[in-house]
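Two records follow; treat each independently.
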Amino acid sequence: MSMFDASSIIHGWDTYPINQFPGLWTWLASQINANQVAISATAYEEVRLKSPDRSNWLRAQDVTVEPITAAILQQAITIKASLGIVTDNYHQDGVGENDIFIIASARECGATLISDEKRQPILPTDRRRYKIPAVCTSLNIPVQCQYFLEYIVASGERFG
């Protein structure tokens, strides 16, 4: 299973407009309907606030919205501690609280996280400055993370 980050669904929609790439979105809808793709409640709320047309599309596809559970909260606490984030001392250049919940959701669900946050070829020494892909690879139990385009390519699907 895969799980969307807000960045990936927004990026995908902007990069591959549904009017010009209807086959892609039909296929993605079929993946959602087959429960191959879900979204965390945190990411869904970000999409809803930033881009109502995208969240309306996701809702129309009946996307599974994974709620924040006690197990996900525990994962988030573990991730936050591994990054050296104490209380709410997040670094403005790194992951925020929502990002940690999104990563924790993917980790708890055993899902690949589809995120279009930029990778950091050279990791900062301050782990609080890690972006989503760096956090995913730095965990004791890593979360696979791929860009929206990588997800499409890995599927092997061909569109029109």
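The next record belongs to a different protein.
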Amino acid sequence: MKHFLNKEMMAPNVMKVPVDATIIKESLPSWSGEIDREKFAIVSPAWDSDIRWISARSVEAFADFQRLFDRLAIARFVEPYLDLECAVRLYSGFLVTRSVCEKPNFHLDWRNTNNEAFTLLTPVTDNSSGFGMLYRKLDGTVGEYEYQLGEALIMGDHFSHSTRPGRSEEPVVLLSFTFGTDKMEHWDKISQTAVGQGHLVQLPDGTFQTGGAKTPYPQASV
């Protein structure tokens, strides 16, 4: 089955997986401090939050995310769900920062891709406690997820979620990847999300596409 249920969370197409927080920490120095605008692009969606997505503007910067994606061995978690020719393709890598969220903004990362694309989120900083995620369960109620160092969420189709409202003295930083099939036949549906978050995206065939950010994420029904 392409779709799956997380019985613990009672939500569709979402899984908790282990990640090596030490590897993530080791990779951070090149991304810390002042953002190099020649290497990285910043997108701030029009939400009630100061959330920022910091992603690669150059192929060199993309390679930093690719190395981290490979070292964390993320592909193994989703391979059973994907229509693959050779290997899982990384579309984009991000650092996601925020220090305030005024109200929820429920959205879907992926809609009707048949789980040919996924998003991963995991904390980088240890101040994420109390500033987690809200998500919609199958029965329509709202659940809460607390980010934990060493654990990541991987989200596929129709998983409705939002940042939980809150504030932090220092920005909370998350690491995020979007990734999935390496077959271009699925790109039309995947691209509706994948090209809207940053300047540079890798397509399933391994080529790169650049362009200004579009309005990200279709809104979920609430």
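Discussion point: Residues 213-222 have pLDDT under 50 and may be disordered. How would you locate this feature using only the token line?
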